[in-house]
Write a structure and sequence with these properties.
Helices cover 43% and strands 20% of the residues. By secondary structure, it is an alpha+beta fold. It folds into two domains: 174 residues, no CATH class; 75 residues, no CATH class. It has a five-stranded mixed sheet, with helices on one face. The chain has a three-stranded antiparallel sheet with strand order 6-7-8. A hairpin with a 2-residue loop joins strand 1 and strand 2. The chain is globular. Bound molecules: zinc ion. The site of zinc ion has 6 residues, from loops. Zinc ion (ZN) binds next to loops.
Length: 281
């Protein structure tokens, strides 16, 4: 992957590609007012890059919501070169037409054509839709792909896209959503990790939350929901033997991959739910 990184940097120089966000500081210095970052943002950037959020939660009994928000905000990758590195394999002999077909370049064009929509960041999970335009020449209709990206400490850890990309490199839809988050970070809806939201709910609200979640995705989550309910109702089941409260919940829905339900406690990460989806198959 080191070679890919080296090539990717060369690729950007050879073709004159610019990574706009990297010039933002210089741009400000060259003629516009310079607004220094707040101490909160400076601290949050360092924490977001270096410390797992779970460690932060364990270190302090209560973290103010604005502090959590800034840590979550700065945890997404900030460098477009990283997106390029994992989405495009550069060959030194690549022609201009081949270059334009690289996922990174296709992702840039999708972003420029406003193909990215419904972008939402919940904790360390980013989701959105990317509309691939149709091709009248081949009678191909436009397609809307759902993309989700998980990340931690400024590194993307997992991606899914309904286009069904099987390449080791990310598809152009993942690229488009990632670049949207980097370039238009201020316009992305941001929510705290769902575990924090759950902590704020009372029993009735939690019950309503679970019922509506199952109703909205019943074909995807019902088998796992039933499995969890069975385990919780058994006093000696594994789930009831785990010490500590659950700090983090992670759901992974994809029509093309097994459904996963993961949870981590203060004792470590536990994964219970994993099964086949019935929707769309
Ligand atoms: Zn895709």
């Amino acid at each position: 992957m080191a070679a890919a990184k080296r090539h990717c940097a060369g690729l950007s120089l050879e073709k004159g590609h610019r990574f706009p966000h990297q010039n933002s500081t210089r741009h400000r210095e060259n003629g516009h007012k310079h607004h220094p970052e707040s101490l909160l943002d400076i601290s949050a950037k360092v924490v977001a890059l270096n410390i797992p959020f779970q460690q932060v939660e364990e270190r302090f009994s209560r973290i103010p919501e604005p502090v959590q928000m800034r840590i979550v905000f700065w945890s997404f990758p900030r460098n477009e070169k990283d997106i390029c590195m994992y989405s495009s394999l550069h060959h030194s002999t690549v022609s201009e037409s081949e270059y334009q077909k690289l996922p990174f370049q296709r992702g840039v064009r999708l972003l420029d054509n406003n193909a990215v929509d419904h972008v939402l960041q919940v904790g360390f999970h980013l989701s959105g839709t990317v509309t691939e335009p149709g091709n009248q020449l081949y009678n191909e209709p436009e397609q809307v792909h759902r993309v989700s990206i998980s990340f931690d400490r400024c590194k993307i850890t997992a991606v899914t896209c309904t286009c069904g990309n099987r390449d080791i490199f990310w598809c152009q839809h993942v690229v488009a959503l990632s670049l949207y988050r980097i370039r238009k970070a201020g316009s992305v809806q941001l929510r705290l990790p769902i575990s924090e939201t759950l902590l704020q709910m009372d029993r009735e609200q939690l019950q309503k939350f679970a019922q509506y979640l199952i109703t909205a995705h019943h074909t995807n989550v019902l088998p796992t929901a039933q499995q969890l309910a069975d385990e919780i109702l058994q006093s000696k089941s594994r789930i009831n033997q785990l010490p500590g409260k659950y700090r983090c919940l992670f759901f992974s829905f994809s029509l093309r991959q097994p459904f996963q339900f993961c949870s981590c406690t203060s004792e470590g990460i536990v994964e219970w739910g994993r099964g086949s989806n019935t929707a769309g198959s």
